[in-house]
Amino acid sequence: MGHYSIKDLEKLSGIKAHTIRIWEKRYGLIVPDRTDTNIRTYSDDELKKLLNVSILNSHGIKISKIANLRPEDMNLELNRILDTDTKYESHIDSLVVAMVDLDRRRFEKILADCNLRMGFEDTCIRILYPFLQKVGLMWQTNAINPAQEHFISNLIRQKLFVAIDELYDPDPDNRPKVVMALPEGEMHELGLLFYRYLMERRGFNTIYLGQSVPFEDLVQTVQAHRADYMVTAFVACVGTESISDYVESIASRLPTVHVIATGGQVGQMASDDVDRVDYCSSVSAFISLIEGLRDRS
Predict the structure, then answer these.
(1) Domain span at residue 14?
(2) Which residues lie across from 277 on neighbouring strands?
(3) Which candidate among 48, 108, 247, 269 keeps its CA 20 to 30 Å from the CA of 66?
(4) Are 111 and 204 contained in the same domain?
(5) How far apart are alpha carbons 240 and 100 in whole angstroms?
(6) Total domain count for the chain?
(7) Cβ contact 206:200 at 8 Å
(8) CA-wise closest residue to 71 among 83, 85, 56
(9) d(Cα 93, Cα 23) in Å, to the nearest integer?
């Protein structure tokens, strides 16, 4: 069970703490526990209810009406909204609820509906990426446990592998070759997997090595397969100096390979060696880069 402070609820729901307290006092929408020192804490059930209330309220349903809805009626309203809604935040909040509940069925339905409307790539960019950012926030505040994080990560990983498999090209020899790997110790691969999908979809031939690849093994693989590009990602908190050292070491050992470093940790980093090293901290920057590279190939 999660234990959330009112500040956690504010960050995760987007509803101001002051408003949460009013809803709590006036309508009894959520009911906190109290610590021995009288500090409010909230359970998984209260977080889920607040996220659902937020979805309904953002679609014009008054709080006074929401407060009187029976659970089954609230679910009917939520399903009606999600079936017709084009607001991404509603789907993101519903995915959070599915994660907290370990509810695969709900997760699959939300994702299937989004895929049908906007396609897999836009679903990842507009729904899954912001959702994973919210999951990261919950992880940092100890608001979710490892089981919940592993549950949702594995479901998303499965979707990415299926989407990549559907792009299979039996004759990839005429496509630019890319080796993709995470630095040793880096285990968060969902971003890199999605970037693999983006590259395959745009005509690159990827060799995916995955998590925590030793430096020398990576260099040898790139050399042995005569790759044109090498893509890595930095998700765990490391210093910019460490990132720069790693990327520059790869570029030095692989003088004919274009190195692309991705992930939120690369921030605003830039390289003087603009011809062979690029830093991309966002999906849009990565897409723009690889489309330009593919056009030149």
Answers:
(1) 6-162
(2) 259
(3) 108
(4) no
(5) 33
(6) 2
(7) yes
(8) 56
(9) 19
What's the CATH number where 275 sits? 3.40.50.280
Check: CB of residue 54 under 8 Å from CB of residue 66: no
Residue pair 202/291 in contact (Cβ under 8 Å)? The answer is yes
Dist. CA 168–CA 48, nearest whole Å: 39
Task: Please return the burial class of 271, using the count of CB atoms within 10 Å of its CB with bins 0-12, 13-18 and 19+.
Answer: middle
Angle (CA) 159 192 185, round 5°: 115
| Nearest by Cα to 211 from 293, 284, 153 | 153
pLDDT digits (tens, 9 = 90+) for 15-34: 899 999 999 888 888 888 88
Q: Single out the residue in 106, 136, 162 at which a domain terminates.
A: 162
Q: Which residues contact 76 (CB under 8 A, 6 or more apart)?
A: none
If asked whether residues 35 and 156 sit together in one domain, one would say yes
- The residues facing 232 across adjacent strands are 261
Spatial separation of the C-alpha atoms in residues 118 and 112, rounded to whole Å: 10
In the chain, the amino acid numbered 18 is H
Dump pLDDT digits (tens) for 220-271: 999 999 999 999 998 875 666 688 889 989 999 999 999 999 987 787 676 6
Q: Are residues 184 and 145 in the same domain?
A: no
CATH number of the domain residue 31 falls in: 1.10.1660.10
Residues 172, 144, single domain; the answer is no
- Summary mean pLDDT of the chain: 86
Q: In this structure, are residues 243 and 267 in contact, taking their beta carbons and an 8 Å threshold?
A: no
CB 137 within 8 A of CB 11: yes
d(CA 204, CA 164): 12
User: Alpha helix locations (H) across the chain?
Assistant: 6-13, 17-27, 44-58, 63-66, 71-84, 88-101, 104-123, 129-140, 146-165, 190-201, 215-224, 240-253, 283-296
What lies within 8 Å, CB to CB, of 182 at 6+ separation is 188, 189, 192, 209, 210, 211, 212, 213, 232, 233
